[in-house]
Amino acid sequence: MASEPLIRFREVTKEFSRPDGKGTFVAVNRLSFEIEKGEIVAVLGKTGCGKSTMFNLLAGLIEPTSGMLDITGHDPFKEFDFFRGKIGIVFQNDRLMPWRSAIDNVVLGLEILDVKREQAEVVAQRWLARLGLSGHEHDYPHALSGGMRQRVSIARAFAVEPEILLCDEPFSSLDEMTARDLRAEFVRLVKQSNKTAVFITHHINEAMEIGDRILVFHRPARIAFEARMDREAGAEQRKTIEDKILKVLSIDMPAAIAPGVES
Amino acid sequence: MTFNPRVRQFFQASAGTLVLVAAWQIASYFFPHYLFPPVQDIFARTVRILVTWPELSQVLETAGRIFAGLTGAFILGSLLAIPIGRYPRIESYITPFLVFLQGIPALSWVIVAIIWFHGTEFRILFIMVITTLPAFTFQLLDSYRSMSKDLFEMTMSFRPSGWKLFRVLIVPTIVPGILTAWKINLGNAARVVVVAELVGATGGVGYELLRQQQLFDMAGALAWTIQLVLFVLVVQQVIVMIEKWLLRYRPISERAA
Hints:
heterodimer; A: alpha/beta; 2 domains; 6-stranded mixed sheet; 3-stranded antiparallel sheet; 7 helices; 25% strand; B: mainly alpha; MetI-like fold
């Protein structure tokens, strides 16, 4: 693995104004971590722990209140256009454009990158085929099942050949069998193309299946536990990590770090 | 006995009109013909207008004015609605003005246009645009605002330029609203154009209606009115066909079919 980190969070804090206008609340609190090229990092935490805020910071959709965040040395918020074609996002729901067929949805990112239509269609067709959607290229989203739609959205993110993939609980709305297939497919695709991925989830098993490394967040988004995963690890070793994660998650209280666990 | 659904739909849609035609015909037996001319006379006059070029050209002149007015209002409405949707602060400046415009009767605009402008065509264009502009703007603004936040964020994740965002997301989002706006404003425009032509033109359906009034010719007045109704019906059908094609991606429940 390369030694130079690709993504760097340094003491990043994000505060939002309260809806009633009285003060602010901290969604991300002095968050620091690094991600190396080719790594898949699973971010795990309870609902409302700030995972999505961290995700939006990474995507460049919101700006940190303080601290420094850089991806390949560039600020994703201030240098928003620099990351055109470099970051692919798979969202929690498929977010397919209903007026575009499956292939046209996959072509979207390439169209924005000014790739010629014929070339874009070839790329889109290839990705749809890799994700088992051959024969459905011209189907509209409403004619596809939930799993198929999510596959299209994965194809859309991969088609632009981004360096970094950000995934926000992309399989949470799917049935377990479909989700399991897609998880395996996702890891295979990321590893094959040597991409870097940040995968947000609130399922321990999913984090353990997908991540090379797991970051467990406590409110407000700060790392309470970190574990490196060995894909060849035996059941006992995995069980130990799972128990530790469970213990950390069970005591997610503001300003508290799980006692007796490595952090 | 079962009917083809389209045939059944046609009969259902025509039932009301047929009742009205029958009632009119009965009235023509009891009242003088200058008040209730027989249906066959009205029909004959209607057909005559359609097959006589000098008369048909009057109908086409009115149709042209309607299209010109609606196109102008649509372009201006889009130019207003999109900045308002994108920068909501502008809304507090523009919306009260549009609401004010909406409250002014078409006839008042006719008087204003006659005093302000010389050319007949420009007068009518001005009246058409100014009377349909607020509705176009509000309908387009509503469509813009109905844009999905999820789809917006997804599109933004690819970091599109302003033009690309407009083309790949904003236009497809507002297309249904645009079509609805055209359907609604078409009827309004047909009513307004007659008023404008009645007072300030030397040709068109409105002008012909004024002539029929001077001649006390009810059959003629109705035949010219029917031309306008037919025009609106035909254009509405064309818009519906365009709508069906453009929005073909929308799922239709078998129960709704």
